[in-house]
């Protein structure tokens, strides 16, 4: 199975070369699409250099400014669908997501439509270096979203996902409006409402070693509030499911 990895970046100059090396060393047929938001630390230029070093395996999508997670992924998905990947992956560029997990994702996507790397199923875990407030807020945010939206996923904000190509092609990407981490909630919820088979596999979510985290208390609190918008905006799909 050929895989396209969509990798949004903003100030990941320290991590990107190491991550690309780790991904390309896997025994998988894959290419990488770097979506860079005009990083001031030169990440985009590093990506261009990596593309020249690995022709046909790395492509770069340069964006004029920092536009957020939703637009980075939506643009990345559209570009990835122009390539020949049978499955498309979302993952963070900071090594929070272990590249080696992709091998299990490939195995599981053969019998499912979406595979999610989950921190909150049996065997999943969070980095011990996470502050207690951050762990508690993340766990509550997932519980809150599951309860409000009424769907069975354990880790609705997970950012490590593999999608079958035909699933992303069928998804109403033009309707996805949430920014930040609610984008992940909305994408998973729509896939659930459309009846796709979603599988969660356990992962360890590691704290970044290099660079600065984009996660803040404000972002996580905003995610909880905006989950209600997701519930309201898809009342038409809920009626169809019923």
Task: Tell me what you see in this structure.
This protein has 242 residues and is α/β, with parallel strands linked by helices. Helix content is 42%, strand content 18%. It contains 9 helices and 9 strands. Strands 3-2-1-4-7-5-8 form a 7-stranded mixed β-sheet, sandwiched between helices. A two-stranded parallel sheet has the order 6-9. The termini are far apart. The relative contact order is 0.16. The mean pLDDT is 91.
User: Major β-sheet, in short?
Assistant: 7 strands, mixed
> Which structural category fits the helices and strands?
alpha/beta
Q: How many E-type strands? A: 9
- By oligomeric state, this entry counts as single chain
How are the strands of the biggest sheet laid out side by side?
3-2-1-4-7-5-8
CATH topology: Spore Coat Polysaccharide Biosynthesis Protein SpsA, Chain A
Q: If you average the pLDDT, what whole number results?
A: 91
Task: Supply the number of helical segments.
Answer: 9
Work out the count of structural domains: 1
Q: Which regions have little confidence, pLDDT < 50, spanning 5+ residues?
A: none
| Strand residue content | 15-25%
Distance between the termini: 35 Å
Helix proportion range: 40-55%
State the CATH class: Alpha Beta
Series of secondary-structure elements, N-terminal to C-terminal: EHEHEHEHEEHEHHEEHH
Q: What integer value in Å does the Rg equal?
A: 17 Å
